[in-house]
Structure formats: structure tokens, C-alpha cells
């Protein structure tokens, strides 16, 4: 019986393998997760506290009590627990409980970035230049940063997942980075220690998966092998967004050198489980050790796809004491796998600010060939402020990279998510971008490709005509359906023989005359003097609609519509707002008064729901443009809210501990 001290998609992932192996599972959950998918999947489930992670999923005493109560024989932990669970592991061992993962020494050594860097140096692993001790305060951080030379990376020693991490280009950013990184580290990991190292400009982020075992004989020796690499360079706020395996950048010699160094480090700490050694690689293919994660990482499915291994099963076998079943020569690179992290985020705000809400409609694209979805949610699930906003991991596999990317494009188009904002538009734009397709990527990809921020897909003239023709055809199909009488003998007095429509479609900054004529189940649409043939089954009740426009197949989603002709359509991943009116209605609409937009120039409004952790002003204070007003914490990340103009604070309205989008601070 295995207790899983985790939540979401990774807990569900472990449960699936346990079922395959005939192992019973115990789930823990907070009170707000009582109806979560992982709770329903497990054989048993126990509540360990209220919503905040520190009081539930990181509540060591409660988890130890559940282990005793359920008589669990093994326990699988998340990364944050691993770093703070060390004092309990010896107690588990004395009670006959097996830990699914490496031993306490490896967790402690590799979970601490300062100690892991020193161990890596001793194991002859390439490391990034920097300060190897603990940074005491902001003044010392500035002094060390000057000695190393800007830019520098400020990191939480016990960190991971991009939390407690800041890039600083000058003294002011170093002081600010020290403050926020230490606060995030304390909140997420219970450890506010920081280190500083040189920031490698324009790097690629590449990981080597390691799977090792220790066999206790007369003399202690271990077996280790590396399972190829993962490319993880597409990131925002130091968190990965798109991953793939293998990397387009590595040649066999570099791959082997990185793999051998990863194995050397694993053996140096007597590592015995599945783990990940992360490297940064520069343009000359020089590589530097970044960290070792002593856990199953989010992006592990791409490794499983190209090697054929079940890493969760391997971890359980190793923990039970079995030797590895494979040699290094047995580890292949079969095909190509790509993973997109689907988040409940608004990609138009800093490449993704968290969104909360209930999933009113949810449909995974599992009907697309060679698609895997690892998720821990379902239709009706809540995305809350307390946990990571990940919806799922979407993985596609192909015999080569082009095939895997094409399937990912199709899968993203067929993914239905309603009720929360999501980042599918950004993911789709990344995987079809010429630079990404060519493999010309780095960790600076997003800011370089979208220097003004992500704006969605920019339609070509042909794509604009396709969207207008599709929207007009959809409008006419709906008008025709509304004239039908189903399930009744009622017969209309006069049958409508109308076969053509003159419409006015507003899209973006333009209004376009569109003529539609019906021909069987197809529509002939004239846009910009060009005729397009639009064909579909016109199943208006389906969230997905497959449309063929002059032989080109597109999968669209109609997100919303109202009686005034306004409709939102997801086309090529991006949601476009249109207004479709008849020619007469369009002429009359000019007489309708428009609602004036709210003047927000004197208001600081929270861009996301979250927790107010600090307020730096009070009514009557004078503030300057760019001055910090307050700090909002959402999904374990802290965000500084600054004044957009110089003025005087007049009101702090509804600034409670938990804020929402209506909370604001007003300036005179």
C-alpha cells in the first residue's frame, strides 16, 4: 500500500502505475480538494488540513499520522515535502515504511543548491561560476553580484519550479531580487537561504534523466544509467512551458559527455531512484551543472515516450530493492516527443498571469492519434489561488520532430477548456513559429520573439478571409436551424426559400461586407471580392467544429455568442471577437450609443486574484511613478504592484487578505 503525499496530475500519474502493478494507494488532500480527481482515483483518501499547503500537503505531523493510520507500506512525496521531510524518514524506516525515492543523504545534498554545487565540483561536473555560500542580506548580495559581474541569478537554495529565482542586472534589481526571492523561498520551501551565480546569457536549458540503484553487498557499489536528454528552453519566469525529447541541439558526443557527468554526480551522492540533472548549454555547446532534482519531474512523459520506460514503475522497483533491468546500451531514442504545459493563465499578461475559476466545460483531445494527457482535473473542477495553476501536461509523439509538432498543433486545436483563461494560444504560436520549428531556441525565446508581450496570432490576409467566411457561415447555419420545427407536426404557413444573405462582419479595427449563399450543406462566401467554399457538418451543439475552407481543414471552437451578434471564435489557437449583423442591422447600429470605457489611469487594480502580503502605502501618501504600492502572492509567486503615475493615495478599497479583480487603490 502506497501513500501519495502529492496532489493534481502527478498524484494521478503515480496511481495509474500502482494500479498496473497491483499496489493499493492512499491519497491525502486538503479540505478544498475533497472532490479532486486524485482523491477519487485512490483506494483510500484522508484529509490532512485546510487549503494552504503549509497546513495540509506540507503538514508533516498530519502526513505521518495518516501513514500510521492507514498502515501504508511506502510513501511517495512531492519536492517541497522531500526537503522538509528528512527528520521523519528515519522514523518511517524504523516503522518499516519504504520511501519511494533516494535516501536522506541524496535528498539533503541535492535539495540544497549550495551543497549540490560543491558536490558537483568534487565529482568533476562543470558548474556555473558564482558564490558558493549563503548570502546573508541585501548588502552582501550587492557586493557579491559586483564581484561576479552583472547579470547575476539569485536563487533559493532549496528552490525549484522557478520559485525564489530572480535575474538582476544592477544593484537595485539585486536588492529587490534578494527581498522577493527570500520571501518566496520561505513561503514555498520553508527555507529562505539564497545563493548567487553568474547568469548565463542566451542559454539552452537541457536535462539528463538519471535512473540509478544501490545494491548493498559486502562492499557498497551502485549501478547507474542515463536516459537521454530533454530540451526545456521555452520558459517564462524561469518556469518551463514547452519541453521535448530529444534536443535538436545536442550531438552524440555532447549527449554522451553530459550523460556521463550526470551519472558521475549520481554515484557521488549514492543516488538510488529516478532523478534529473539539469544543465545550461551555451551556443558553443559548453554545458554547466544547474541542479539535480531528486524527484519525478513534470516533464518526465517525454522521456518515457522515447525510451519506452515507465519511470514511476522503475522508482517503485528500485525502492523495493530490485536491480535495474537495463544497461546503458539498452536505452534507445525512439522517435520524438513534445510536451506543452497547459496552464490556467492569461498569456496576454506577462506571458501568463494566473486565472481562477470553475472548469464549466472540459474535453481532452484524446481522440487525436499519439496524444497523451496527464491531468488531475475534470469538468467541474475548481482552479484556486492556493495551488499551481496547471491544468494538464499535453504530450504528443511522432516518428520524428515534424510529426510530433503537427500532432501537437492538432491536439491544441481540439482541446476544449471553458471557465478559466488558458495559455493554449501561446503554446500553439510557439510550436508553429519558424524559429522553434528550426530548433533556434533559448531560454530568452519568448521575450525575443514577443518583445512587446504576447498579442495572439496575427492573421494573414488569407487567414482573415477564412475566419470571416467561417464566422458568416456559422451565423447563417444557426439562422437556418432556428427556423426548423423538430418533434412536432406543426407546419409553417410559408416555407422560407431564402438562399442568400448580405452580412456585415466586424473584426478587430475593420468592418467587412460578406455575402453568403447556400449550396446544399456548403456555403459559398464572398469576402474582399474573393469567393470561398465553406463545408462542415454544422453540429452547432458540439464544442468543436471541423470546417473545410477551399480544401483547407480547420478545427474551430465557438466560445460565446449573444443576441447582439457578438461572438467569440477560437481560430488557429487564438480567440477572436467578432460582431455579425445583417446589412440593415449594421446600418442601424451606428445610432446605438456606445458604453464609455472606465478611466483606470488613477487606479491600481490587482491583475490577478491572490493574497495581499504587504501594503507599502496609506491614504494621504504621495507616491512616484514606479513606486511599489503593495505585494500580491498568487500560486506561490510574489508580484510587486507599482504606481503607473505620480500622485496622492486617496483610498485603499477592499484591500483584504484575499483580494480579487475588483480590489483597487485610487490616486489623485
Automatic annotation (TrEMBL):
Its cofactor is biotin. GO terms for cellular component: mitochondrial matrix. It comes from the Eukaryota. InterPro entries: ATP-grasp, ATP_grasp_subdomain_1, BC-like_N, Biotin_BS, Biotin_carboxylase_complex, Biotin_carboxylation_dom, Biotin_COase_C, Biotin_lipoyl. Pathway: Metabolic intermediate metabolism; propanoyl-CoA degradation; succinyl-CoA from propanoyl-CoA: step 1/3. It is found in: Mitochondrion matrix. Its main location: mitochondrion. It catalyses: butanoyl-CoA + hydrogencarbonate + ATP = (2S)-ethylmalonyl-CoA + ADP + phosphate + H(+); propanoyl-CoA + hydrogencarbonate + ATP = (S)-methylmalonyl-CoA + ADP + phosphate + H(+). Residues 595-668 form the Lipoyl-binding domain. Residues 117-320 form the ATP-grasp domain. Residues 1-451 form the Biotin carboxylation domain. Pfam families: Biotin_carb_C (PF02785), Biotin_carb_N (PF00289), Biotin_lipoyl (PF00364), CPSase_L_D2 (PF02786), PCC_BT (PF18140). It is an enzyme of class 6 (ligase). Keywords: ATP-binding, Biotin, Ligase, Lipid degradation, Lipid metabolism, Magnesium, Manganese, Metal-binding, Nucleotide-binding, Transit peptide. The keyword Disulfide bond does not apply. One of its GO terms (molecular function) is ATP binding. This is Propionyl-CoA carboxylase alpha chain, mitochondrial. The gene is Pcca.
Amino acid at each position: 500500500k502506497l501513500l501519495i503525499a502529492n496532489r493534481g496530475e502527478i498524484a494521478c500519474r503515480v496511481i495509474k502505475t500502482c494500479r498496473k502493478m497491483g499496489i493499493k494507494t492512499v491519497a491525502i488532500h486538503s479540505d478544498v480538494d475533497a472532490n479532486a480527481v486524485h482523491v477519487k482515483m485512490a483506494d483510500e483518501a484522508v484529509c490532512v488540513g485546510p487549503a494552504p499547503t503549509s497546513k495540509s500537503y506540507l503538514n508533516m505531523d498530519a502526513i505521518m499520522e495518516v501513514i500510521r493510520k492507514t498502515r501504508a507500506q511506502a510513501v511517495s512525496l512531492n519536492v517541497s515535502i522531500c526537503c522538509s521531510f528528512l527528520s521523519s524518514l528515519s522514523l518511517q524506516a524504523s516503522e518499516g515504511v519504504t520511501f519511494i525515492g533516494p535516501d536522506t543523504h541524496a535528498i539533503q545534498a541535492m535539495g540544497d543548491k549550495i551543497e549540490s554545487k560543491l558536490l558537483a565540483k568534487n565529482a568533476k561536473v562543470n558548474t556555473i561560476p558564482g558564490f558558493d555560500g549563503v548570502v546573508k542580506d541585501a548588502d552582501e548580495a550587492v557586493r557579491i553580484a559586483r564581484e561576479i559581474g552583472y547579470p547575476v541569478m539569485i536563487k533559493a537554495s532549496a528552490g525549484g519550479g522557478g520559485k525564489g529565482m530572480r535575474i538582476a542586472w544592477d544593484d537595485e534589481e539585486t536588492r529587490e531580487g534578494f527581498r522577493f526571492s527570500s520571501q518566496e523561498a520561505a513561503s514555498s520551501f520553508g527555507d529562505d537561504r539564497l545563493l548567487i551565480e553568474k547568469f548565463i546569457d542566451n542559454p539552452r536549458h537541457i536535462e539528463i534523466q538519471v535512473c540509478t540503484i544501490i545494491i548493498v553487498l559486502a562492499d557498497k557499489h551502485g549501478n547507474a544509467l542515463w536516459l537521454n536528454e530533454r530540451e526545456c528552453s521555452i520558459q517564462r519566469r524561469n518556469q518551463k512551458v514547452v519541453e521535448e525529447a530529444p534536443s535538436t541541439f545536442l550531438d552524440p558526443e555532447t549527449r554522451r559527455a553530459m550523460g556521463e557527468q550526470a551519472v558521475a554526480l549520481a554515484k557521488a551522492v549514492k543516488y538510488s531512484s529516478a532523478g534529473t540533472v539539469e544543465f545550461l548549454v551555451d551556443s558553443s555547446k559548453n554545458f554547466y551543472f544547474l541542479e539535480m532534482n531528486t524527484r519525478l519531474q513534470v516533464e518526465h512523459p517525454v522521456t518515457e515516450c522515447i525510451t519506452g520506460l515507465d519511470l514511476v514503475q522503475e522508482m517503485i522497483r528500485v525502492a523495493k530493492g530490485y536491480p535495474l533491468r537495463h544497461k546503458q546500451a539498452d536505452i534507445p531514442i525512439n522517435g520524438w516527443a513534445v510536451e506543452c504545459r497547459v496552464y490556467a493563465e492569461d498569456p496576454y499578461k506577462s506571458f501568463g498571469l494566473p486565472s481562477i475559476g470553475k472548469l464549466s466545460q472540459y474535453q481532452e483531445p484524446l481522440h487525436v492519434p499519439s496524444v497523451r494527457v496527464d491531468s488531475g482535473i475534470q469538468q467541474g473542477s475548481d482552479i484556486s489561488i492556493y495551488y499551481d495553476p496547471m491544468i494538464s501536461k499535453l504530450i504528443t509523439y511522432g516518428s520524428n520532430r515534424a510529426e510530433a509538432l503537427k500532432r501537437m498543433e492538432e491536439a491544441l486545436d481540439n482541446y476544449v477548456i471553458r471557465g478559466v483563461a488558458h495559455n493554449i494560444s501561446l503554446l500553439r504560436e510557439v510550436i508553429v513559429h519558424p524559429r522553434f520549428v528550426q530548433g533556434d531556441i533559448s531560454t530568452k525565446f519568448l521575450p525575443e520573439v514577443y518583445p512587446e508581450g504576447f498579442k495572439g496570432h496575427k492573421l494573414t490576409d488569407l487567414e482573415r478571409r477564412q475566419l470571416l467566411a467561417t464566422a458568416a457561415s456559422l451565423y447563417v447555419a444557426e439562422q437556418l436551424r432556428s427556423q426548423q420545427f423538430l418533434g412536432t407536426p406543426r407546419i409553417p404557413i410559408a416555407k422560407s426559400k431564402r438562399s442568400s444573405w448580405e452580412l456585415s462582419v466586424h473584426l478587430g479595427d475593420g468592418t467587412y461586407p460578406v455575402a453568403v449563399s447556400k449550396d446544399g450543406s456548403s456555403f459559398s462566401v464572398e469576402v474582399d471580392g474573393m469567393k470561398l467554399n465553406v463545408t462542415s457538418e454544422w453540429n452547432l451543439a458540439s464544442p468543436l467544429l471541423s470546417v473545410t475552407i477551399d480544401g483547407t481543414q480547420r478545427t474551430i471552437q465557438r466560445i460565446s455568442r449573444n443576441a447582439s451578434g457578438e461572438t467569440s471564435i477560437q481560430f488557429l489557437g487564438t480567440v477572436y471577437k467578432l460582431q455579425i449583423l445583417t446589412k440593415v442591422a449594421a446600418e442601424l447600429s451606428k445610432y446605438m450609443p456606445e458604453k464609455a470605457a472606465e478611466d483606470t489611469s488613477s487606479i491600481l487594480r490587482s491583475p490577478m486574484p491572490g493574497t495581499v502580503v504587504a501594503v507599502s502605502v496609506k491614504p494621504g501618501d504621495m507616491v512616484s511613478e514606479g513606486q511599489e504600492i503593495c505585494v500580491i502572492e498568487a500560486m506561490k509567486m510574489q508580484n510587486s504592484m507599482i504606481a503607473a503615475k505620480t500622485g496622492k493615495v486617496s483610498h485603499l478599497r477592499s484591500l483584504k487578505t484575499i483580494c480579487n479583480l475588483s480590489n483597487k487603490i485610487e490616486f489623485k
